[in-house]
Each structure stands twice: as C-alpha cells, then as structure tokens.
Design brief:
The protein is an alpha/beta fold and 331 residues long. The protein folds into 2 domains: 135 residues, Rossmann fold (3-Layer(aba) Sandwich), CATH 3.40.50.720; 185 residues, NAD(P)-binding Rossmann-like Domain (Rossmann fold, 3-Layer(aba) Sandwich), CATH 3.40.50. It contains 12 helices and 12 strands. Strands 8-7-6-9-10-11-12 form a 7-stranded parallel beta sheet. It has a 5-stranded parallel beta sheet with strand order 2-1-3-4-5. Helix 10 links the parallel strand 9 and strand 10.
Amino acid sequence: MSLNIAVTEQEFHKAEKVFRTAASQGCFCVPAPAREEALARFVREKAIRHVILGVERYSGPLYEALSCGAVVARFGVGHDGVDKGKATERKLLCTNTPGSLDASVAEHTINLMLATARHTVALAGAVREGRWSPQIGSELDGKTLVIVGCGAIGRRVAETAGLGFRMRVVGLQRPGARSNVTHENRGFAALSTSYEEAVAGADYVSLHIPSVPETRHYLNRERLAPLTATCQVINTGRGALIDEGALFDAVSEGRLGGAALDVFEREPYSPAVPGKDLRRLPQIIMTPHVSSSTREACERVARQCLANIQSAERGAYLEMNLLNLEVVKKL
C-alpha cells in the first residue's frame, strides 16, 4: 500500500513526527494549504488520495477534487466544518477522532478555572512589568461548578473538579439526551435537565456541548441573566455557543463576574459585535484555541486519523470513526 495523504499545514506541524514516520507504512503525508480552493488544486496536482483537515469550513471544491472512497479525516473531534451531505453524494468517507482530546481539553478547562480564581494572568503580567501588586484570590474547594453537557469531556472535568478540588459539580443534561451519566458517576453531586435549576448559585459554568444550529448562542442574554455577579463562564467547546455581544454587556455592566474563553465566534479573534471587543475587559481571560493543543493529544489524533485511512483502504469500514456511515452502502 502506497498512499499520498494531504494534511493541512497547521495540523501537519502539530504532529509532524507521526506523519513523517507513517511513510514506513506506505502513508506519505505532505503538508497542504488549508484554504479550500488551494487544497482542491493541491489534491488534483499531487494525486492525493486522502485528506486530513483542520477546523476550516469546506463547502464544495474539495469534495469534487477527491475520488470515490477517499477519506476526509477531521484532525480532532468537532466536524461542523465538513459537509457530510456533499461528501456522501461524492462517496467520500468522513471521520473524526473521538476520545483523543478528552484529557487535554478537560485539563485546560481546569486550568482556566484556576486562572480566574487566582488572578494568574493579571498577576504574572504585573510582575513581568516590574509591579508587585498582590491580589487575594479564591479557592475552588467548595465552589459550585455547573457543567453544561455531560459527554466524555464534561465527565472528565467533573471527576477532576469534584474529586480533585472537592467542588460541588452539577451536570446539566439536555432533556432526552442519550447519556450514561448517573448520580453515581464520579465527580457529580447532582444532575439536572433544567438550566435555571442547575445554575442557581453557580460559581462557574463550563460549556461542553456540540456546536450545532440548535446550540448557536446557547449562552445568550436570557441564559446569562440568572448568573450572579461573581460567576465565571468557561468555554473550551466552540465559540458559537456564546453570544459574545451579550457576554460583553453582562461583564462590562457588572452582572457577571467574568469569563475564561479558549474559543470564539471568529478565529483568529476579532469582535463579533462592533464596539464590543472582549479584549478590553480585564475580567475576561482569552487563549487562542489551544485546549486540545498538547503534544500528547496531537499525536493521538494523528495516529487515529491514519488508522481511519488505513481501515478504509482495507475496506474495514466498521473499524472507522465514520461520521457518514450511510456512504458505505454506495461504495
């Protein structure tokens, strides 16, 4: 087996060692442009069989450039940038890498909570600038954390926060959502399907739900209203989950204590609403979408992407993390 695989450039460099080593198994991975038109040309010119993609949105030319049975592998878990319908029409296999980022994202969620509690960013910046300006922080011990979405990452955050920091963790589940979470799950003190009930008295609210049309601006003006003036919002999920204009107003007007955000509606960050730049608010900590960017996580993702591709080449479709299983009937 000898395969040419295009990996969008940023993703290639996240796990370059894994991608280069794959040549020993006949998988020749090459860095490729991320923009769709350029990537489609690259696929045609370089006789590319499969592609591994980052978070960009792909809506047309790429699917036309790939041949029947090719794999469109998402480097990560979220796959809202891949058009599964068009891929299925073109008989392309779409995959992602579930579970590969759980530890990394959960750890950064805890990291952001600690940073807000102990004013880490402001204090570190002050010392670097030659100012010695101690501030009194707060402990996580005994505080209430609401986890919106009790999937694998949400459960991992609950276990770390509940058992490691002795926080009171409340899990908020969507009514009717499939879940194996029970009160006996490690870390959770309570579960609820009512947003208002769950967030009552919350010190932290952390978002761990998928970005789909139904969850766009999930945390909007109405859902921000019940939160207290000392509550902190944490988002390591997707930027579209928060109405950034409503968040700016709540923080700047003192109705919300602050936020720690790793994801944004526009990336690289620019204000989603003119005149409401989150960077102006010292109560908001912002990191550049790095919750999944650890060496370990990137290497797990790369290996899983390649495993999906190798399974496709063997026709072992049930071994793949397929997002469009229905395409198998067309092959």
